[in-house]
Amino acid sequence: MILATLCDGELEEAAVQAPHGWIKLSRINEAFEANWPLQIGELIASGRWEALSSWYKEEGEARLLLEVEAVPETEVAFGLLYRNPRKIWGIGMNYRPSGEPPAPPDPGEEPVSFMKPDTTLIGPGEPVRLPRQAERVTAEAELAIVIGKVCRNVSEEEAPDYVAGFATALDMTAADIHEMNPRYLTRAKSFDTFLSIGPQLLTVGEIEDVHKLEISTVLNGTEVHRNTVSQMRFRPWWIVAFHSRVMTLLPGDIILTGTPGPVIIRAGDEAQGWIEGFLPLINPVAAD
Questions:
Q1: Are 38 and 46 in contact (CB under 8 A)?
Q2: Counting beta carbons within 10 angstroms of the beta carbon of residue 268, is it exposed (0 to 12), middle (13 to 18) or buried (19 or more)?
Q3: So what's the pLDDT on residue 67?
Q4: Distance between CA atoms of 49 and 36, rounded to whole angstroms?
Q5: CB neighbours of 125 closer than 8 A, spacing ≥ 6?
Q6: CA–CA separation, 127 vs 5, rounded Å?
Q7: Do residues 112 and 92 lie in contact, with contact meaning Cβ atoms separated by under 8 Å?
């Protein structure tokens, strides 16, 4: 199942992708006398995303195509997938160079982690605003993990059962502030508009092998960095298991898995994140 948040003026509502477009959950509720939550965040927090995914896979797709009107792809305005996750974790320096053979982490090696507040969040098409305090800001395309169940002390093998799905992310950093002192990483990552998520959430079953996904950081339509998830030092299921031993992960928590590389962004640019099989994530860049 593929979910997105559609915008109609100030109204935001979850929708399911169907062969003939996007179908809002309110229309599904009307057509099938159901009561699915109308926001992706509520759907995940309530645990009902699994039931919706199972229904869609078993019978929903065929019935929706025949019975429910969809918003055509050409008329869709995407919004932020959902607001107010309890936690947003990030992983830094997680890709080996594309020329190196894939390899597990070195003995004793652990990920560089940081946290971002939910006030950094924006959706597709919303501007990244460059803060006045920073002279050099970078954007980084990343694969984002969305936690689907309460998750504590799970193994790498168990981790897929606790993940709702994946999304594209653009993570921004005030690079010059971080370079002043590594201890300033959290501040450098935490300015408003410094994290874009969307436009789609692909449930785990939609991706045949997450390790084969290719992630690209793109600036103004030109690919600058590209790498494959298999080149990560710490791969997605390992990341979930590791962080579940640090803290309880909750439905809707987001984990950013690192970038193939950053690009410097300036006012007037378009920062873009491309992941194979996902719609591109595009955000214009503006002065604050």
A1: no
A2: exposed
A3: 75
A4: 9
A5: 77, 78, 282, 283, 284
A6: 17
A7: yes
- Res. 196 pLDDT band, cuts 50 70 90: very high
DSSP string computed for 264-279: EE-TT-EEEEEETTSP
In the chain, % helix, strand, coil (3-state, to 5) comes to: 25, 35, 40
Give the bridge partners for 23, in sequence order. 16
**Residue length, the chain?**
288
Q: Whole-model pTM? A: 0.95
Tens digit of each residue's pLDDT (9 = 90 or more) over 84-128 = 999 999 999 999 887 777 777 778 889 989 999 999 999 999 999
Check whether 63 has a pLDDT greater than 90: no
Determine contact, residues 77/124, Cβ cutoff 8 Å.
Answer: no
Amino acid letter, residue 234: F
pLDDT, tens only, 159-188:
999 999 999 999 999 999 999 999 999 999
Q: Which is nearest to 166 in space by CA: 207, 110, 195, 130? A: 207
Q: Which amino acid is at 159?
A: A
d(CA 127, CA 152): 36
Tell me how far apart the alpha carbons of residues 145 and 252 are, in angstroms, rounded to a whole number. 9
* Residue 130 near residue 286, CB atoms below 8 Å: yes
Q: What is the amino acid identity at position 216? A: S
Tell me, what DSSP letter sits at residue 250? Answer: -
Look up tokens 């652990």; give the residue: 110
Q: Determine how β-strand 163-174 pairs with β-strand 201-203.
A: antiparallel
- pLDDT tens track for 120-153: 999 999 999 999 999 999 999 999 999 999 999 9
